UniProtKB/TrEMBL annotation:
It holds the Pfam family VPS51_Exo84_N. This is Exocyst complex component 8. It comes from the Eukaryota. Residues 183-283 form the PH domain. The lineage of its organism: Eukaryota, Metazoa, Chordata, Craniata, Vertebrata. Keywords: Cell projection, Cytoplasm, Exocytosis, Protein transport, Transport. Residues 313-324 have a biased composition (Acidic residues).
Length: 726
């Protein structure tokens, strides 16, 4: 029944918060007026908090579902784009086939024209010759719009002449176009636009070779001359038709991972020619490479050995036994998955399918593991290495601190694991630790300094040590089985991160001059959190000790000086009178305080009613000294042993010197007896308690405290002496 009422109340609250006219200020005002007390407000706050958490979970679930749908949609779009690309290729091939049909009929037409010329006399022959001449010269005229195909014919001399002309017109490209067999296919003027805002950038001229595309910019002061801008190999270039969207029209895009460029042709015809000739040249280059690989993979016949008798002019000096030529083993690269491997890698990188890309690389490496490296294999390796470099750059960017640091260490696992599979273990370790250092630094900076110092230190320790623990566990998961040097790098990183933590810790605890008790509690909290790292085998306690030792020494020294000054001030006003606490409650409170300080026999120093047979100075000194010792022991570690011991001795000496001086200088017998009673309490009760508590906290006795207590015997043996015993 109660649960049903709670569900209905939550539903009513949700509807109220979701209403269009909801006003937070008015709602809080009404709620404050209607509530009976703090408990109602706390319960209502819990209901709103539960509703907020439920809403956050629903939002997270919806975002995850939408993200999955977005990924699936992107994958479907990619498949559709690939199918459209294949369809475009098929249509282009069909168009080429249809255009080549009339060319096959030209020989028959030429024969018929020859027969007509023979029967028609000289006039008919002259007409046919004119038409042949015009057809032969048709390629010499550029197409409209400043774009033209190469018209030098298939001869090597003509191709070289065209390439030489190109080298003369474009500055800075001579060293790039020295590949044997390279020639110009197509060229024309274009206008480049910015990909994001579609703003016009510059006028360029494109030169399409049989294996690459050269882009050159205009030189306004030198008409007809260009300056080299970029060179793109055709096997890594993709051409995309850009749909006309007035006034932006006649455009096409060139994709060269990871960049892209948009160009505009002069008209639709020039644009169509660019798209067609680019596809034809890419297809021709791919076919040429495939034939070369097939020829390289095809087995050769046995080498022919020329007999000595068939060469009667061979010198006698060359009459040596012929060494049979060792035939180099060939590698079959004609399989479809190998042919499409570079393009598949580009698709995987573009779609952020890092696992798929690395799987393809592993498959290729396994296939070529024990095989030789002829030129086709080296060429394939060069293409693949370029994709590996691109994939590595993308993975490095994924781990860069500039990316979002949300998600914790697990968000980096995907990129780290793929870098390790690529053999980049050291780089993966460096980037992972750099990413986590930035995350820890950001988390510390986002902590608000509000409220008590101890509360802030609790938050700081929770944030830092939780991040450190998660990082250590993720590091152990990601780099299990790798080089042990990575673990050394993690230890160095952990020390650096601990330095970052101690800087924030010291700035809030020690630089703000907090009390010794607050500093002790803060250090205790930090030590407890640090010891939790021992669960995973990581002990950083010695590091936090080394980093905090100077600050703790300064805090102990400052508090020691405060106690000494307070003790001297009380000594200057000492009247050697008994304490009168006036009320039994005050006397009972003092007994509890002395008991908590370790003084168990304080009852023997109390008198009738509310009197205490001790001086106020000695009682105050006892409480202050024991309080200092208790707080200092919370801060103790071996490096602070002598600092703490020397501070205690200095504080005790102030009281001992004052009692000794008063005992030697006082002439009144009653006051002298009272001073001797205070000295007995100081030497026989307080000093043994200090010595015992120090030994319990440190683990070993302190010789300096024993010597100080033994020196008090001179006072008890010869109290009338005027010689100082200190």
């Amino acid at each position: 029944m109660a649960m049903a009422m709670s569900d209905s109340g939550a539903t009513r609250l949700r509807r109220q918060l979701e209403s269009g006219g909801f006003e937070a200020r008015l709602y809080v005002k009404q709620l404050s007026q209607q509530s009976d007390g703090d408990r109602d407000l706390q319960e209502h706050r819990q209901r709103i908090q539960a509703l907020a958490e439920e809403t956050a979970q629903n939002l997270k679930r919806n975002v995850y579902q939408n993200y999955r749908q977005f990924i699936e949609t992107a994958r479907e779009i990619s498949y559709l784009e690939s199918e459209m690309y294949q369809l475009s290729h098929l249509l282009t091939e069909q168009k080429s086939s249809l255009e080549s049909i009339p060319l096959t009929l030209l020989p028959a037409a030429a024969a018929a024209a020859g027969a007509a010329a023979a029967s028609g006399g000289e006039e008919g022959g002259g007409g046919a010759g004119g038409r042949d001449h015009l057809r032969g010269q048709a390629g010499l005229f550029p197409t409209p719009g400043g774009a033209s195909r190469d018209s030098s014919g298939p001869g090597e001399e003509g191709k070289q002449r065209t390439l030489t002309t190109l080298l003369e017109k474009v500055e800075g490209c001579r060293h790039l176009l020295e590949t044997p067999g390279q020639y110009l296919v197509y060229n024309g003027d274009l206008v480049e636009y910015e990909a994001d805002h579609m703003a016009q950038l510059q006028r360029v001229h494109g030169f399409l070779m049989n294996d690459c595309l050269l882009v050159a910019t205009w030189l306004p002061q030198r008409r007809g001359m260009y300056r080299y801008n970029a060179l793109y190999p055709l096997d890594g270039l993709a051409v995309v038709n850009v749909k006309d969207n007035p006034p932006m029209k006649d455009m096409f895009k060139l994709l060269m991972f990871p960049e892209s460029r948009i160009f505009q042709a002069e008209n639709a015809k020039i644009k169509r020619e660019w798209l067609e000739v680019l596809e034809e040249t890419k297809r021709a280059l791919s076919e040429k490479r495939r034939r070369e690989q097939e020829e390289a993979a095809a087995p050769r016949g046995p080498p022919q050995v020329t007999s000595k008798a068939s060469n009667p002019f061979e010198d006698e000096e060359d009459d040596e036994p012929a060494v049979p030529e060792v035939e180099e083993e060939k590698v079959d690269l004609s399989m479809e998955w190998i042919q499409e491997l570079p393009e598949d890698l580009d698709v995987c990188i573009a779609q952020r399918d890092f696992e798929g890309a690395v799987d393809l690389l592993d498959k290729l490496n396994h296939y070529l593991e024990d095989k030789p490296s002829p030129p086709p294999v080296k060429e394939l390796r060069a293409k693949v290495d370029e994709r590996v470099r691109q994939l590595t750059e993308v993975l490095v960017f994924e781990l860069s601190p500039d990316r979002s640091l949300r998600g914790g260490p697990k968000a980096t696992r995907r990129a780290v694991s793929q870098l390790i599979r690529l053999g980049q273990c050291t780089k993966a370790c460096e980037l992972f630790l750099r990413n986590r250092a930035a995350a820890v630094h950001t988390a510390i900076r986002q902590l608000r300094i509000e409220g008590a110092t101890l509360l802030y230190i609790h938050k700081l320790c929770h944030v830092f040590f939780t991040s450190l623990l998660e990082t250590a566990r993720e590091f152990e998961t990601d780099f299990a089985g790798t080089d042990s040097g990575c673990y050394s790098a993690f230890v160095v990183w952990a020390r650096s991160a601990m330095g970052m933590f101690v800087d924030a810790f010291s700035k809030q605890v020690f630089d703000s001059k907090e009390s010794l008790s607050t500093a002790a509690e803060c250090v205790k909290v930090a030590k407890e959190h640090c010891q939790q790292l021992g669960d995973i085998g990581l002990d950083l306690t010695f590091i936090i000790h080394a980093l905090l030792v100077k600050d703790i020494q300064g805090a102990l020294h400052s508090y020691k000086e405060i106690i000494i000054e307070a003790t001297k001030h009380r000594n200057s006003e000492e009247m050697w009178r008994r304490m009168n606490l006036m009320t039994p409650e005050a006397l009972g409170k003092l007994k509890e305080e002395m008991k908590s300080c370790g003084v168990r026999n304080f009852e023997q120093y109390t008198g009738d009613d509310c009197w205490v047979n001790l001086s106020y100075t000695v009682v105050a000194f006892t409480k202050q000294t024991m309080g200092f010792l208790e707080e200092a022991l919370k801060l103790y570690f071996p490096e602070l042993h002598m600092v703490l011991l020397e501070s205690l001795v200095e504080i005790i000496l102030v009281a001992v010197q004052h009692v000794d001086y008063s005992l030697r200088c006082e002439q009144d017998p009653e006051k002298k007896a009272f001073i001797r009673q205070n000295a007995s309490f100081l030497y026989e009760t307080v000093l043994p308690v200090v010595e015992k508590r120090f030994e319990e906290g440190v683990g070993k006795p302190a010789k300096q405290l024993q010597d100080l207590r033994n020196a008090s015997r001179l006072i008890r043996v010869n109290p009338e002496s005027t010689t100082s015993v200190v």
